[in-house]
Amino acid sequence: MPTREAYTKAKEVGLDLVEVAPNADPPVCRIIDYGKFKYMQAKQQKNNRSRTVRMKEIKLRIGTDVNDYNVKMARTEQFLDHGHKVRFQLRFKGRENAHQQMGLEVMAKVVEDMKTMGRVDQAARLAGNTVSMVLSPLPEGQRVKKFKKYEEEDFDTESEEFDAKDEA
Predict the structure, then answer these.
(1) Whole-angstrom Cα distance, residue 71 to residue 148?
(2) Which of 1, 49, 74, 134 qualifies as a FRET site for 17, CA 20 to 30 Å off?
């Protein structure tokens, strides 16, 4: 329908002529309330934004002490509980390279401790002097926290400090 005719129809009804798909050939327009249209667009963008999954990173060492390990696992539970994926990195330095099997054992322990919160997306694999692994959260109803007593009262899970450098 011609633009002028559509515009007059919209004014008769008391609504606006809104271009919905400008890239289509011919462009698509609708007769709707412009305020309601903008509100629905903003609401849809907000919903799309909330579903983005961020990658968090936890760095471990072979000699990570028990209490430090428990604090890191509590932090991991928080990340998984907020729906973030978690990448674990264990780096070997110096003579530790001769004991790479110990690093794989640490990663196996992490998997065992986190099986109530997440599942393995990418199994532990050795690349040079680093072992890396990725966990993703279980569905909300299946998550069971194991390291509650080591939690600090307000972890900042949105902190940029713990975001992985490369979102792969």
Answers:
(1) 10
(2) 49
